[in-house]
Amino acid sequence: MNDNSAIVSPWGNTVPGPRPTAPIDSPIQAVPEYPLVYDGKLGELYAIFLRNLLLILATGGVYYFWGKVRLRQYLWSRFSFLDDRFEFSGRGLEMFLGFLMVIGGLFIWGVATTAVELSLESDPVLNHGGIATITFIIIFYLAFVAQFSAQRYRLTRTRWRGIGGGMRGSSLVYALKACLLMLLLPISLFLARPYVALKLLRHRIERTSIGDRPLRMDYTPAAPLLGRYVLCGILAIILAGVIGFFLVQGIIARYAPMLFGALGFDLVLPIVTYGVFYLVSAWVMASFWALYWRHVAEHIRWGDARFRVSLQRKHFARFRVWHMLALIFSFGLAYPWVVHHSARILAANVVVLGQVDPETLRQTDLSGAAIGEGLVNAFDPGFI
Amino acid sequence: MPQPSALFFDGKIGQRHHVHVAVGARDLVIMGASTVHASWPLADIYMAAPPDAQAELILANRRQPNARLRLADPEQVRQIELAVPALGKVVRRYRPWRAANWLTGLVAAVCGVVGIGLALDGAPAVLAPLVPYQLETALGDRVMRAAPAHLFGHDCSNPAGREALDALVIRLTEAAGHKRPIILHVTSSRIPNAFAIPGGHVVLFQGAIDGASGPEEVAAVVAHEIGHVVARHSVRSLIRELGFKTALTLLTGGASGDIGGSMADYGSKLVSLSYSRGAEEEADRLGIAMLKKAGLRADGLSKFFERAEKFDRSGGSATSWLSTHPANEQRIAANRQSPDGEPPFTAAQWKAVKEICGLQSPRK
Questions:
Q1: CA atoms within 13 A on the CB side of B29
Q2: B117 phi and psi, to 5 degrees?
């Protein structure tokens, strides 16, 4: 799961912004506040979702991309700011082509490596391991490429008052930087996690424009986050360990083989173990991520405007744990509810402060990414 | 001059223009207090966002892709819907579906799922002949090279035993009308097991020879495995798993992730499990036909299953060979044959086959 993907926002993950510690203007002058408004209806979301589901099944999956556009068009248009609605202008065809490109690339890579593997005379186990390692590194790298290009795609396909957004810079450079920063994690025993997250977020924010007006992120120290991070981390390890040991090894290891036969050990046990670890640590780490986004928001500027994010621990616990459980146990049928609920939380907790001045906001000259979000769909970059 | 009833954004700047809209025969004219902002040909107008419950419309036009016109007056919306027929259709499409549409969708969805299922079921048999044989050979060679010695044991190559088995393989291959070479490997593992590997390799464990009640049992097991080779079952099951994974990727829109990936593995295991049952039955059938055509005794297969059944019941380890195969009782009944026909080996040959891995006494 991505850091930000739980937050459904018209502007991808760039909107959750800062809460100023100190008033921006003089204390006497009131700072104008402009809320983000969401007025979507759960019933309408379900109508779109179920209709998409039927068409996806009827077309053997191909409709997925068109369905996704339809859902986004609805969702985007239900967010408004300063009484004007957002708009998603992406196309199903471009997403489908993007997906085909990624799948085609992976297929060619798979065929090529298999051919190389078969032609090598040395130890087959060693060959396989070597090629698998190279493939892993490439996919790791491409996941960051996808993160950057997906954000660019969303920005270029989002409009407000006819004005679009965009991103400067190269996704390849971003991914290289991200891979190098990721090396810090094992070296620092993961203590550098907040620093790395901030550094990467800042890289993306600093290259983002809404209209001709760029977003800015001031230097954002990681130190204020470190205490909470370490505390949450230790707690997560202890809790996940204790619960994992007693619940998974004690109870599920005993009953999974009875319920699922031999597959119980091979498949059900690892899935449940991973699931429990994920949910417990996500629940504990929610406190850190809430602090992280409130902290980050204080340092982002858009022209003369700033942001205030008031997301709390409970909100991230909902995004990462309760929504996830709802999706699993409803076999995905809770999806519209999850989207709706997330949108409401987001709208209720993000405020733009200061001078927005849309009358002088000009159209962006950043051209859009042409290949859609296929990369993200194929790799689903997630490190939590 | 009528009151402004709409908002216009020119696509260059985020400024709101309060405008009045006039619908002409060919154009939609957007007028400000003192100036005409734009004139949109009706044919180029489309809806930029789905209308909400108040039926507020946000329109765009293909010639000025960034400009937007926002209309809230229901009377005006109706007027424009009438003037731009394509638009009316779009607006209706966004309204909740009628029952008939849902029903059509449901039927189409069922057809789609059934269609994918049939395609997945039938495609491997159609596609397998298209896979170049060299690819299959390369894959099989690699598997054989990587074969773990601690599982397979060492290669058994007692010349007399090899000669007898090779003669049997040639006789069966000819009876099956199979044009490509079949390479039989005998290894010293004591597990009663045999399997076919892509590229015409058949591996026979010593354990399958050890406990055999007679030579016809070994011949039947070899014939069964040759049946797998002839029908190219290994390629078919590879295609099937690939197809299943691709279909799943499409259905989930490529959502992978750890849980999704595990579910895909789980599903493809189930698919290959149910598929291999059908393949086993086909190999049984082909094996017996092969034996009969070669003029050999064909009653060995059911004897082998009787022994496998005993092995199971005596609490022997459930090997993978046994678990992917149809229930033994069923196969004993289905493959019961008369003991007519030549024995596959002479007494001397049978002795040599039993000693193919050396002279150690076979364990029961």
A1: 10
A2: -60, -45
CB count within 10 Å of CB A2 equals 16
Q: Could you say which of B53, B58, B105 has the minimum Cβ distance to residue A58?
A: B105
Q: Coil, strand, or helix at residue B176? A: helix
Report the gap between the CA of B357 and the closest CA in chain A (Å).
26
Look at the block and give the residue holding tokens 């490109």: A101
Length of chain B: 364
- The identity of residue A9, as a single letter, is S
DSSP letter (8 states) at residue A41: -
* Non-local CB neighbours of A276 within 8 Å, separated by 6+ positions: A240, A243, A244, A247, A248
Distances (CA, A) of B270 to A263, A267, B81, B273: 10, 12, 53, 5
Residue B80 distance to chain A (closest CA, Å): 20
What's the ipTM? 0.78
Measured between beta carbons, the chain A residues lying within 8 angstroms of B254 are: 99, 102-103, 374, 377-378, 380
Q: What angle do CA B137, B139, B142 make, to 5 degrees?
A: 105
Mutate to test the interface with B, among A81, A85, A136, A355 (most CBs of B within 10 A): A85
What's the rounded Cα separation, in Å, for the pair B291 and B297? 7
Contact: B9, A162; criterion CB under 8 Å: yes
Show pLDDT as tens, one digit a residue, over chain B (364 residues).
Answer: 567 789 999 999 999 999 999 988 889 999 988 899 999 999 899 888 877 655 678 899 988 889 999 988 878 888 888 888 777 655 555 555 567 777 888 888 888 888 877 777 777 788 888 888 888 888 788 778 777 777 778 888 888 999 999 999 999 999 989 888 899 999 988 887 888 888 888 989 888 888 788 899 999 999 999 999 998 888 887 777 777 666 666 555 444 443 444 455 555 555 555 557 778 888 999 999 999 999 998 888 888 888 777 766 655 444 434 444 556 777 887 778 887 888 889 999 999 998 888 755 444 3
Kind and range of the H or E element at A239?
helix A223-243
A88 vs A77: CA distance, rounded Å: 7
